[in-house]
Design a protein that fits this description.
two-stranded antiparallel sheet, mainly alpha, 10 helices, three-stranded antiparallel beta sheet, about 300 residues
C-alpha cells in the first residue's frame, strides 16, 4: 500500500489523508467483524510539507487587488448568503470542481464579517449583474447561463496569475495563498481566536501551525525589544552595585591623637571622653582634662592662660 500511495501524484498531506481514511474504513470493518485486522495500521505516510507556501506582502496584496475585478475576489456565494444589514457572509455550502456540497466542519459554516467597502462593491455588482435574484450565484457564469459560478481554476490561470506577473509578483499564487496571507498579516491585528474565527477553522492549531507564518520584521523587533530590556536591567544592577561599592569604600575618620578617643553624646553636641562613663562636664573642666591628656601624650608642658 505504501507503493500505491507513492504512485499518487498528490502532495504528502493529501496522501496522508488518503491513508488515514483507509485506516478508518478498515477500523469500521473490524467493529462489524468483517475483517480480523487493520492492514493500514502499519502503513507509513509522511504529511510533512515539501515547501513553505508563499505569502504575499501587504504591498503586493494591495497592488494585486487594485488590478483585479470584483469577481476574482469572491466565489461560490449566492445572494441569499450576503446579509447587507448585519454585514456578514453566511457560508453554508462548499464547492469543488463545480460540485456543491456541505461545509467540512461546524466551524466552516460560521458567518464571516463583511467589510463596509466590500458590501458597497457587492451592491454595485448586483445592480449591474444579469442574475440579481436571491437564489442566483453572486458571480454566476454567463457561459453557463447562471446555473454555475465562475470556474475558480480558470479565474486563477487566466486572470489572477497573469495579473500578478504583470505587476511584478513572481510567487506561486493559488487560492490558498490569500488565506495564508490573511492569517499571517492578521496575527498582529487580533488574537489567534479572532483569526481562527475568520478563517473558520475547527482548531486553533490549524490556524497557527498551517496558515500563519512568521514575519521577519516582527521577529527582529521582538528580539530587539527583549535585548533592550535585558540591557536596561543590567545597567540598573551595575549602577546599584557601583553605588554600594563606593559607599563601602569611604575611608573612616582618623583620630590624630590615639590616646584620646572622642565620642558624641546623644544629648549634646559637645565631645566627651570615651573613658568616662559620666555625663557632660563644664567647659572649663573639659579644657583642663584635655590639656592634661595632651601633656601626658607628648611629654611637654602645656601652659594655659587662666
Amino acid at each position: 500500500m505504501e507503493e500505491w500511495l507513492d504512485s499518487i501524484k498528490r502532495a504528502k498531506a493529501t496522501r496522508a489523508k488518503i491513508r488515514n481514511l483507509m485506516s478508518v474504513l478498515f477500523h469500521h470493518a473490524m467493529r462489524y467483524e468483517w475483517v480480523d485486522r487493520n492492514p493500514v495500521k502499519l502503513v507509513r505516510q509522511s504529511a510533512k510539507r515539501e515547501r513553505v507556501p508563499d505569502v504575499l506582502e501587504l504591498s503586493e496584496l494591495q497592488l494585486l487587488l487594485s488590478r483585479l475585478e470584483l469577481r476574482e475576489r469572491t466565489l461560490a456565494l449566492r445572494w441569499e448568503d450576503v446579509d447587507f444589514k448585519a454585514l456578514e457572509l453566511r457560508v453554508t455550502r462548499s464547492i469543488w470542481h463545480q460540485v456543491i456540497g456541505e461545509c467540512k466542519t461546524e466551524a466552516s459554516a460560521k458567518p464571516v464579517p463583511l467589510d463596509e467597502y466590500m458590501a458597497e462593491d457587492l451592491l454595485r455588482w448586483r445592480r449591474s449583474s444579469p442574475y440579481p435574484l436571491m437564489s442566483d450565484w453572486v458571480f454566476a457564469s454567463p457561459h453557463m447561463r447562471g446555473v454555475q459560478p465562475y470556474w475558480p481554476d480558470n479565474l486563477m490561470k487566466r486572470y489572477i496569475r497573469p495579473t500578478a506577473q504583470k505587476a511584478g509578483i513572481h510567487k506561486n499564487i493559488g487560492w490558498h495563498t490569500f488565506r495564508h496571507t490573511f492569517a499571517t498579516l492578521a496575527q498582529k491585528k487580533g488574537t489567534v481566536k479572532d483569526v481562527q474565527g475568520i478563517l473558520r477553522h475547527a482548531r486553533p492549531g490549524t490556524t497557527t501551525d498551517v496558515y500563519m507564518q512568521e514575519i521577519p520584521e516582527s521577529v527582529r523587533a521582538t528580539v530587539n525589544s527583549i535585548h533592550t530590556e535585558l540591557r536596561s536591567g543590567e545597567s540598573k544592577s551595575r549602577q546599584a552595585s557601583e553605588g554600594a561599592r563606593t559607599e563601602g569604600s569611604k575611608p573612616a575618620k582618623r583620630n590624630l591623637n590615639p590616646g584620646l578617643a572622642v565620642t558624641m553624646t546623644t544629648t549634646a553636641t559637645e565631645p566627651t571622653l570615651a573613658s568616662e562613663g559620666k555625663g557632660p562636664r563644664s567647659s572649663q573642666g573639659k579644657v583642663l582634662e584635655f590639656a592634661t591628656r595632651m601633656r601626658q601624650s607628648s611629654g611637654k608642658e602645656v601652659v594655659l592662660n587662666a
